[in-house]
Specification:
- With 173 residues, this protein is an all-alpha fold.
- The longest helix has 40 residues.
- The radius of gyration is 21 Å and the shape is flat.
Length: 173
């Protein structure tokens, strides 16, 4: 049993380190985004592309920070390994939405860049937009299926649905 406790401590330490590194990267992107925007204002061309690129950096930074927060909450601070299905769906949906926005924003930035320089190459941003749309549809299907599964589980076992999820042992500020 002591071995398990020691391994849990090591696992939590690794997740904590990974979460901190991800948070540092996210904060670095949040600082870098406005710097690129300020640099873009000193140039006469490409401001629109750099504006979208800065927004993209911020969106990716938020997504990375959200992942780091999720890792901290679920793997470092929480002693309870069981999660409520609705809570899991909300977390995954929030993260997936951020990724879809980042992909679609990048396709928009690519469209502006390529339209100016190589209009014949516009097929690549179109493919990226199609990929973003496919991700969006997959997220919508996930939402629909997981919500209907939650309802089915609640209908089959109303007592379990009425029981609130076990409170986490983590401290909240």
């Amino acid at each position: 049993m002591k071995m398990r406790g020691g391994f849990d401590w090591i696992t939590k330490a690794v997740f904590a380190l990974g979460g901190l590194l991800l948070m540092g990267i996210a904060l670095g992107l949040m600082v870098y985004a406005p710097i690129t925007l300020v640099r873009a204002f000193t140039q006469t061309e490409g401001l629109d592309v750099e504006l979208f690129r800065s927004i993209g950096y911020l969106i990716v930074a938020i997504a990375v920070f959200d992942v780091a927060k999720y890792i901290f909450e679920e793997e470092v601070l929480s002693d309870d390994e069981r999660r409520n299905a609705a809570e899991t769906r909300r977390s995954l949906t929030k993260f997936g939405s951020t990724i879809v926005i980042a992909v679609l924003l990048e396709s928009l930035v690519m469209t502006f860049e390529i339209a100016r320089e190589e209009p014949a190459e516009l097929i690549y941003p179109v493919f990226l937009m199609l990929a973003g749309t496919a991700l969006f549809l997959a997220l919508a299907i996930f939402q629909r299926l997981s919500a209907s599964t939650e309802r089915m589980v609640q209908e089959r076992d109303p007592e379990a649905a009425a029981t609130p999820p076990k409170p986490s042992t983590r401290k909240r500020a």
